[in-house]
Amino acid sequence: MRRPKRLETWLISGVTCLSLLLCALFGGISYQILSRSITEQSGAKALGLAHAVATRTDVITALQTGHSSPQLLAAIEGIRLASKADFIVVGDTHKYRIVHPDSDKIGKKMEGGDSQAALEGESYISEAQGSLGRSIRGKVPVLDEQGQIIGLVSVGFLSQSVGALIDKRIPEIIMTVLGVLLMGVLVAFWMGRQVREMLFGLQPAEIGRLFVEQDAILNTVRMGVVALDADGRIRKLNQRAREILALSPTCQPNTLMLSDLLPQHADFLLTNQNKTIRGFELFANDQWLVMSRVPFQVRDQNDGLLLTMRPADEIERLSQQLAKVQEFAEMLRVQTHDYSNKLHTLGALLQLKAYDKAVEFIGQESQGWQAQIHLLLSQIHEPTIAGLLLGKYHKAKELNIEFQISPDSQLSDVQDAIMLERMVSIMGNLIDNAIEAVHRANNHKPRRVVVTLDETASNLIFDVEDSGDGISKTEYSTIFDPDYSSKQGAQHGVGMYIVNTYLCACHGSLEFADSDLGGARFSVYIPTKPLPEVGTV
Predict the structure, then answer these.
(1) Where would you find the membrane-spanning parts of this chain (predicted)?
(2) Among 82, 340, 433, 504, which has the highest number of CB atoms less than 10 A from its own CB?
């Protein structure tokens, strides 16, 4: 197979051919302009010289007497040679020559057929075939003292003489054309190199294939992908994103802004663009979406954002299973670590023969564990919530934090699966925040987290209190912002935003204030009526 030409070869060849064409046009036009200019200059010179000769006294005298003297012929010849004219002819009113460079033609009639207008009083430039050849002529009438026309003067430059003048200037035109052509070729090579560097050495066929492959890959994945400029303008989106966001197949992405697709969440998604956020939920287009936001980098510089999204119901089952596995693994890890320490302590007491202390230690541990189990079994009838609280109990205990479930707590079974899922997420985030707040606290208060659950005829209520540093008044207005966090790390700052989002979906509310423990207190109220279907929130 014949190998296709490279892009830079096409570019260099094209620019070179274009330069050749332009140079040919430039050379032809320059030659025409030069030829016309020299011809006009020769005619003007001939006409001016004819005027000078026509006003000479000796020429007027010669025309009046009908013959020319040798002195006149010599003077006219001197003028002709000095002016480099090919001929100066003086004729009478009958067009018979009385002065001519060739003495054999004196007395003969003037040729060319262009002298009559001069005998009628006109001064002009003409081009005609004379006895010496084709020439450019300046013709002027000769007047006597009374202003009567007594003859005419014709000064001419032969066409071959004018052509010789033009030919002398051709090398200049050729050098100029070659210079322009060389510059065009150099520019073509420079452009070819620049284009090759900008395209990373890829050829047009390769670029076209990459473009097709990119579209095929983006439209194959089952995840919506949206590429944005830094100002929120849509740069590209795949077919799955069109389906999720209910966009028309004919809609042009580059005409849209993020605010057109996700009006309620555009400000959040465009804030703090250097921060990566993964796996958060948003309610948009009458459905819950699980989204991630990653800075879009080109040559190590942020060039926008890349959003990925999937409907939450597609991964709901997997996420629930994964959450349960993670909770179970976390509980096992905590229990293993905790009981390993206790076994070491118990073994040491036995080696020291402190049998009474060992029995007392076993009783304390059994009593605390049994108290929590008894409270959960007797008052918290929802197994999922009970499992969540038990896992958080072990997590707090590992951090040497007292995790207490209020004895007044009570909760019956939750029949609505969607509401139960939201409650687990809300309670989990709030309890994790409370444990972390106590763990980071710089005060000397008892390290405690207290959870209270209750239900009324119309609401499910639970409180989370801690003995941390609390919430300052300046944080009241920013605590639910998606990028606000009192902790460090790229994944922080989304928890309270998700809590608020879930509460809105459940038509619930949240209140926060100072706790009697010295930290913060969060109170959640969730209506017990069934959760509305997706799309009616």
Answers:
(1) 149-166, 173-192
(2) 433
